[in-house]
Amino acid sequence: MIFTNARIIFPDAIRDDVDVVVREGKIAELPTRIEPSIEAIDLGGYFLAPGFVDLHMHGGNGHDVMEANVNAFRAICDYHASGGTTSLLLTTATAPFPEILLALTQIGKLGEEIPQIAGAHVEGPFISREQAGAQNPEFICEASADLVGCLLEHRDVIKRITIAPETKGALAAIKEFYAAGIVVSGGHSNAWEEDARAALENGMRSVTHTFNCMSSARRRGTKRVAGLLEFALSEPKICCELIAEEHHVSPALMKLAYCAKGVDGISLVTDATAGAGLAEETTFQLAGKKCIVKNGACFLADNNGALAGSASRVIGLVRAMIRNAGVSLPNAIAMASLNPAREAGLLEKGEIAIGKDADLVVLSPELEVVRTYVAGSLSFRAESRNPEVLP
């Protein structure tokens, strides 16, 4: 397979003078323009980007990760492929612990059948009740040695876990997960600055949905003290998840995050729930809670104004960062591909380079997803706007 006549998006530039040759699911060559052949796919000047990697998403198209079955996982992956996602971490919710373990078992088993599944993100149950957000507080618990041990039995599946650093047992758990090669992300947290610093020292290297469900600066005694938010923005070792879809954060906050962290310090995530892809006013479930789709976002049905994840796909976040934060196209794409791939330890994904997986997205000049390829195989095809150029 050869992709030709494309504007190829690299981490630091856009080039239109090279082609992409794919063999056996890998990017094999990046030659300068080659002679037309029957194998070549002429992209007609459209963009060719690396496939997006979503570190944090709970569902889509009416299905939730906690359903823990092949039909749900396929529906979720198919929906997010339409937004350019080629790899994702299926994210569990705060729920009865046996249900979390079942979901992890199924993610490990079905990940061998569904190539987009790159592992799991465990969000909760070791979180703060004060910052629970849409997570079900009924099932929040402390990070006991027994529960941590149960999760570590799934260390090959879990790529990422969200923990509130200030909660009981959190620091010991963070240290164990870090030693096991699992990325620990601080989130759903009411931490003070010293709690966050202790977590960093024990292995925390990320924060979950920056600005949302996390502590910010508060007065203590005569001075104001940083919360998890300010600590994350100021600490170079911390990578920040960002749901850049204009419901969770405003344009000014997108720009603030970009100014503070730069291109290398942000991973765009959808935090999409089952409502993603559903029609307005449709209801759905999130960890046993009734939710509803309104104005292109997801909300708890019985709590007016409380967000319940998002209805977004990654391409929408890319466009929002360009529009609202003045981010260049290569930088916005890197936040959606290269950065999260590194975060998840997916070293063969996230950029167009020789030897990397041929996970690719064809984008129109308006940054609409036209085609999505996983390991060189077509996983999504939009209704063709120009069938002569894009067969």
Features:
TIM Barrel; alpha/beta; eight-stranded parallel beta sheet; 10 helices; 27% strand; Urease, subunit C, domain 1; six-stranded mixed beta sheet; 2 domains; 391 residues; single chain
Task: List strands and helices in order, with pairings.
Blueprint: E1 2-4, E2 7-10, E3 13-15, E4 20-23, E5 26-29, E6 40-42, E7 47-50, E8 52-57, E9 59-60, E10 63-64, H1 70-81, E11 85-92, H2 97-110, E12 117-123, H3 145-152, E13 158-163, H4 170-179, E14 183-186, H5 193-202, E15 204-207, E16 218-220, E17 223-225, H6 228-234, E18 239-242, H7 251-261, E19 266-268, E20 283-286, E21 289-294, E22 297-300, H8 314-325, H9 329-336, H10 338-343, E23 360-363, E24 369-374, E25 377-381
Descriptive notes:
The chain folds into 2 domains: 2-48 and 353-381, Urease, subunit C, domain 1; 52-343, Alpha-Beta Barrel (TIM Barrel). It is built from 10 helices and 25 strands. It has helices at residues 70-81, 97-110, 145-152, 170-179, 193-202, 228-234, 251-261, 314-325, 329-336, 338-343; strands at residues 2-4, 7-10, 13-15, 20-23, 26-29, 40-42, 47-50, 52-57, 59-60, 63-64, 85-92, 117-123, 158-163, 183-186, 204-207, 218-220, 223-225, 239-242, 266-268, 283-286, 289-294, 297-300, 360-363, 369-374, 377-381. Strands 8-11-12-13-14-15-18-19 form an 8-stranded parallel β-sheet. α8 (314-325) runs antiparallel to α9 (329-336). It starts with a strand and ends in a 10-residue tail after the last strand. The model has no long low-confidence stretch (mean pLDDT 95).
